[in-house]
Amino acid sequence: MQIEWKDIYKTGNAQIDAQHVQWFSKANYFLEASDKESRSAAARKMYQYTRLHFQDEDRLMRSIDYPDAREHTRRHNDALVHMQLLLEQIADDTLDMEKWRLFLADLFLNHIVGADLKLAAFITSQKRAAKRNSTGIDSQWGGAVPEGPLVRDSGTNTRSGPL
Length: 163
Description:
The protein is mainly alpha-helical. Helix content is 66%, strand content 5%.
């Protein structure tokens, strides 16, 4: 049984989205493998690709000073530990494919929909803030005009109201 890629998994970052599609492909190749040798090869490829993908995400998070980077990286490390266990279970013939299918489906759902979409939202908010600042709009107001009647005070315009 395959894990289906859905558009709701898109983060809006072309590189990360392309990697996620590849990640799904690697996981599905593993899930479709029918013997120990092909499962082992597919699991190694999936593990290696996952490490590469996580390294790219970790590098991205560091480059933007992502506030939740530590927790996100912890999740990456936990997933890699589990995938290492997968390789061990294949080697010693203790693999339960249904449990691993559920693990991978949960990993994709929780990691992509939870952690990665949260990262994508942060990146989007940073881009919007940078765009607002580059257009000369006072970032204090985030592009919005504060409410309250305009009051003229000694020739300067100020706003009255709750602020």
